[in-house]
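Query form — protein Trichome birefringence-like N-terminal domain-containing protein

QUESTION: What is the three-dimensional structure of this chain?
INPUT:
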Amino acid sequence: MKTPLSSSSSSSSSSYIIRKARLSPYLFTLLAFIFFVAILYGEDFICILGQLDPLSSDTRPISPTKKNREKLPFAIGKTGTEEEGCDVFRGRWVRDVSNRPLYEESECPYIQPQLTCQEHGRPEREYQYWRWQPQGCDLPSFNATLMLETLRGKRMMFVGDSLNRGQFVSMVCLLHRLIPEDEKSMETFDSLTVFTAKEYNATIEFYWAPFLLESNSDNAVVHRISDRIVRKGSINKHGKYWKGVDILVFNTYLWWMTGIKMKILKGSFDDEEKEIVELPTEDAYRMAMKSMLRWVKLNMDRKKTRVFFTSMSPSHGKSIDWGGEPGQNCYNETTLIEDTNYWGSDCRRSIMEVIGEVFGGSKVPITFLNITQLSNYRKDAHTSIYKKQWNPLTPEQEANPVSYADCVHWCMPGLQDTWNELLFTKLFYP
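ANSWER: The structure tokens for Trichome birefringence-like N-terminal domain-containing protein are given below.
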């Protein structure tokens, strides 16, 4: 309680009280304004101060009607939202001779001989001159300097099968020209291949794990096994090599396509008596996706790291799919598929549905790179017969090139550079 004013000071204080009363409306207005601003923008101020992390401990899903103010690691801007008409995975291919290819095949010594189509006799280069044009916006130009500076002191790793290895090599080819010869190296250690940019103290790596889980196809060199077996609950067998990575890019699809069922091992490959069950491929794939998400949740720091998943890479083994002659495939194909709704029979929609189901119900922050539809149009971009053949061709094969054409992998430079442009876009402009 305030002490009453004494009579001796009443005359000198009366004028102060009057002045105070006159100021109080202004003071009240000021306080009200400050209070209003605090209510309206308080969360933003706290975010700026780094004291708010709405995703770190609160596992409740964020309402899609609320704007998520958490800034993703490495993000510096945005291309736009789907509400604004921007979906970088929907669009069309545009011929662009002025800006394509992004590098020359002969300039990148890191491309595997299975992907050097010009060196192995491909007679034309049309597949190199196409640029992806998204619907409603433009892809940011791939900035190799920005990418390398961002990787300074960090690790970027691609994990998966040979399609992901192709994307890894594409990324190396996009960056290596900025690095002096004596400041870069490429080494392979069993399942791990490491490109090092010494000046940047950075690595771009590829880890061979075609199923992500442990399998009998894990040997990076000798893995052509028809009777494939995957071990349940075994992602840590490979995952221990992924820890500490700052940007992680997963893929897995092709190796699951052995039929309608997949063999799953319960227990260990070292057990004398092995318990093996068969699951529908979709259920087995779902198991792997959930294992991957669980590993990411437990091992990746969402404040500092980014995780991506590249969707299935389509193959073009049946020309009848796009209106071609029966018995043919991607061999001698030099044009694109123009039907925007085209979906090849080699692509299992049920697998894409599994991905949508598992990712859609997860709170784990993984950026999905949906390269399937845009790659579906590119029957022209496969290595076909223009690659190193590991075994001598038989007279029958030489007489019928369709019989040994590779309609799974992609020539470089080419389509997979676009995958990395999309990766670049989602990394910096999500």
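ADDITIONAL NOTE: The chain has a mean pLDDT of 87.
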